Amino acid sequence: MQPVGPRVHLAHLPTPIEELAALGRLLGGPRLFVKRDDQTGLALGGNKTRKLELLVADAQAERATTLLTAGAAQSNHCRQTAAAAARCRLRCVLALGGGPPATATGNLLLDALLGAELHWTGERRRGEALDEVADALRRRGERPYVVPYGGSNGVGALGYLLAMQEVLAQLAALSLRVDLMVVASSSGGTQAGLVAGAKAFGYDGRILGVSVDKGEREPERYEAQMATIGNAALARVGLPARLDAGDFEVAYDYLGGGYGVLGDAEREAIHLLARHEGLLLDPVYTGRAMAGLIDLVRRGALGDARGVLFWHTGGAPALFAYAGELRP
After folding, report:
1. Of the residues 75, 185, 186, 211, which is catalytic?
2. Position 216 pLDDT exceeds 60
3. Rounded CA gap, 68 and 93, in Å?
């Protein structure tokens, strides 16, 4: 593997692996573990910090003055991008879907504390307005670096190619076998990086993404998009492995009421992990992905898997924005 290239130190790595022993006893089935990427450390942590280490270095190489990205109002990616910009003395502009709420809470409050400039874009929350906002920034003399939605391109996914190398070394040191890894999947960069890392470093278990977006893409198109992202990450480090759509496994059975809609399954997962493990999931991503994993265990759908690793991608600040729906 060729050297990764420039990388800004933002994350507390390696993040720990913990066993979810109480949840495992409650559910029955294989041993359950969690990879604590909610503990990456940047402004309350999350998976985007690994991606931003590469993306910010790329922005600096391009002599950018401003990080520009997009997401929903409670975007964890936007919060971590704002924090990375503050750490690296860059401006941050966020194109957020919807309109300004009466009270800013959760990630939105943190965006403001971190000094981000907010542009509200209505229905366009997945980065559709990024070119428009970038042009406006250039007209006022700034040099924006456009961080794609979710940080999901070849540069960002490289963070999770490297994360796979990290987790395999940890599992070997702990003498643990994991037959299945489960991760929330939305913009695709995290799952793409993990699958690319599996090819690069010889992991032969399953990597299951649990989709959190309802009706926003055709499955075949999404899996092909992840293959493109993963191949771009592999190319950046000179690895010859190639991915195609068939290398990606995504569960589309847990979409519930749609993106950001908290349902009974997500609510149960959040309460179970909080009360039995002292672990906080978020309402949009990890709550839905864990709900999927819980259902698979209960239905006995994991076959002869002996160990399952759940990637906790962060997002706990969004809990505060859902307080009314989460109270027992």
Report:
1. 75
2. no
3. 5
**Residues 181-199 pLDDT 10s:** 999 999 999 999 999 999 9
- pLDDT, one tens digit per residue, over 116-133 is 999 999 877 676 789 999
Query: What size, in residues, is the chain?
Result: 328
**Cβ pair 291, 16 in contact under 8 A:** no
Q: How does pLDDT run across 62-77, given as a tens digit for each residue?
A: 999 999 999 999 999 9
Locate 189 and state its tokens: 């960069």
Residue 92 pairs with which residues in a beta bridge? Answer: 67
Look up 75 and say whether it is catalytic: yes
Q: Are 328 and 289 in contact (CB under 8 A)?
A: no
